[in-house]
Design goal:
- The chain contains four helices and seven strands; from the N terminus they run ααβαβββαβββ.
- With 161 residues, the chain is of the alpha/beta class.
- β5 and β6 form a beta hairpin.
- The protein starts with a helix and ends with a strand.
Length: 161
Amino acid sequence: MRKSGRVLAMAAMAMLCCTTPAMAREKDPVPAIKGQITFLYYKDLPAAAQFYERLLGKAPEPTPEWVRLFTLTPTSTVGLVDATGGALRPSEEKPVMVTIVVDGVRGVDRWYDRVRAQGIRIAEERKTTRLDAKRSIHAFMFNDPEGYRIEILSWVRTPQS
């Protein structure tokens, strides 16, 4: 009995102190995520809103005057916020990049043609960048009116050499 009691105590201790991350997730699952919004902050919200409306080919969602929401996909939105509204303020440095993922090299090329046709300066020309042995991206980049970098990309397979 004494030996079996020690075995049970050791098993209980192992369960308490040695829970794996997978075991922890089962007990406390991550709450569901329904979508994502990236907010960008502007000194001139009307100019930024006009740029994105023209770029995306659609009007923003109805919102209060200090914010404009542009739905990109059913679960992804870019939000533009006036300098005087919202939680943060615009800054000269823009350490944020909005990446829009499209379908295939042809999708990137169609967006490239659209951006060029609107007279937007291309910051980085179209190119394919190898990420690893299986994945590459085909992408180009440009800036919005206040300097936020926008990247249009598609995942592509890395060519086998």
